[in-house]
Amino acid sequence: MTRTSIAIVGSGFAGLGMAMALRRAGRDDFVILERAASVGGTWRDNTYPGVACDVPSHLYGFAAHPNPNWSATFAPGPEIRRYLDDVAERENLGDRLRLRTPMLGAEWDEPARVWRIDTGAEPVVADALVIAAGRLSEPNVPAVAGLESFAGPIFHTARWDHGADLSGAHVAVVGTGASAVQLVPELVKRAAHVTLFQRSAAWIVPRGGVTYTEDDRARFAQPGTLARVRAKLYGEGEGRFASRSGDATASARAQNSALEHLTAQVIDPALRAHLTPDYAFGCKRVLLSDTFYPAVASDAVTLEPSALAAVDDGTLVAGSGARHTADILVLATGFASTRQPYAELVRGEHGRTLAEHWSHGMTSFASTVVPEFPNLFVMNGPNASLGHNSSVLMIEEQSAYIVRALAERDRRPDRVLRVRPEAEAAYTDEIAAAAASTPWLTGGCSNWYVDERSGRLTLLWPGTVQAFRERLAASDGSEFEPVHSAVRGKERGES
Length: 495
Prior knowledge:
alpha/beta, FAD/NAD(P)-binding domain, 15 helices
């Protein structure tokens, strides 16, 4: 058995960021449980052709580990994975990592006041549990009738089959989200033909960016340069929030830019009409690409402007009724985001799972702590994602909040933090009020930010990074049950 103060589940940006924050706070008694054979999270798992970040490289990294050696404005996926490997090594996390160690279950032991974690091998017992499993960890496979009857290779972008021979193949791609927009231009270079199933068009704006030279990297390495670059990029990212959240002037300006981009790159009016979204700018994730439209407009791609509805004896049947053939089927269908798979595995007080607590959509206080789950912290969970700036900034703020919460826990005689349900409800109401008039809820689309059952915005933070920083910094510990209430309740035998 492994006995530790803090168990962190996951070793992507969130898990490594949490470990760094703990170390800097003088807390070294922790382990990182990672189900895979290496660190990296979504950047380890996503290896499809063209995978890259759509946040500028110099902002998509830890403040404590600026990297002057990025190859371009937008780093390719393998480079980001190498960066995370390097961070783990520079932080000397090797002795804290437990690779090939999944969290198969976690249960709060009330009498012992610990979390008991099932890994399938050596159990782990921890005073506190940090879930840093990520919101883009489990592929979403659509329920398509007859899908299993497809004769050729079929795989999700996040589980890319590098053994599949694309050369000379007819490849069908299902989905036109962020992964597909990066993938399709690469497939055009390799495959004989691509059929693209589009359920709904995306708003796409110019990507731009440059490849950095040796002189650029030397300049970034100069003292103070990267701090200034990061500050500039941060400000630009914060400025994008208005266009994503429904500010009329900013949204109109951004939408016009997207339409001009489409018009300039797609000459055929019929194709252009199919590629024009019928919902408000910002309702779905806004994508960045300079190569997607030219690829779709080429003779190498057939755009099917409807979803894949069925597979009939190996033939792909679209919602429009059109039938298509393909040798390889790629699912660019996103992830289980609003219904996090790990929630089924975590059982708190009264035997309830986190999934049961979230049966009407994810809720929390400070996007991090949840009633009935003592000493549990969730990163990248309820309303902790962004649509306009770097998610790493949010991870750093959550890590800082968790460090402060652990200090509060240590001041309590029972060393247990229980979130007041009223605090969670008030925070949830804050989110709902801030989100009510945004395109995510009013823009006329269905998106992966909104819980399909409750209709609430449960994934995105409906504000700027600065607002999130200030909201978490304002938390003073009153979100937790008073010590005397918790202790006296236990003395009376209340559960």
